[in-house]
Write a structure and sequence with these properties.
The protein is α+β, with helices and mostly antiparallel strands. It has one domain (about 5-145): Thiol Ester Dehydrase, Chain A. About 15% of the residues lie in helices and about 40% in strands. The protein contains two helices and seven strands, in the order βαββαββββ. The protein has helices spanning about 10-15, 65-80, and strands spanning about 5, 25-30, 35-45, 90-100, 110-120, 120-130, 135-145. The chain has a seven-stranded antiparallel sheet. It starts with a strand and ends in a 6-residue tail after the last strand. The relative contact order is 0.20.
Length: about 150
């Protein structure tokens, strides 16, 4: 059971997301066996482009971007599997996701994912985003890992 950590350069070698939509700054824990599990970090700053409109006088990270950050953390873990290299990860669904705390500039968002199912390129992961051990969002995300068009 090897645990790894990855910096932003390594993350960009694994997943296709880029600024302004790359929402994971570091992977602090990564396990591929016996279960696929990862912990990521997103440092939330006032310089994020979405704060220009959400909301200028009361900046709050949009919930959908918290979920996207969780999905990207899961993506890093899933794309580390040899059979998924060079493929594209796609979000396919959300189950029973709840938001419990606002995320604001200055927060460090901890992104935890644990795969609960992975079969034939389709998967589910239990996810939790937290700030200082207070849950911001939790639930289950679903995803597919597919061949890139033109590369099949």
């Amino acid at each position: 059971m090897e645990k790894k950590s990855l910096d932003i350069t390594a993350i960009q070698e694994i997943i296709p997301h880029r600024f302004p939509f790359l929402l994971v700054d570091r992977i602090t824990e990564l396990e591929l066996e016996p279960v696929i599990r990862a912990v990521g970090i997103k440092n939330v700053t006032i310089n994020e482009p979405f704060f220009q409109g959400h909301f200028p006088s009361y900046p709050v990270m949009p919930g959908v971007l918290i979920v996207e950050a969780l999905a990207q953390t899961a993506c890093v873990a899933g794309m580390m599997l040899e059979e998924n290299r060079g493929k594209i990860p796609l979000f396919t669904g959300i189950e029973d996701l709840k938001f419990r705390r606002q995320v604001v500039p200055g927060d460090t968002l901890r992104l935890e994912v644990e795969f609960i199912q992975m079969r034939h390129g389709m998967g589910k992961a239990r996810v939790r985003a937290s700030v200082q051990d207070q849950t911001a969002a939790e639930g289950i995300i679903k995803f597919a890992i597919i061949e890139q068009k033109g590369k099949e």
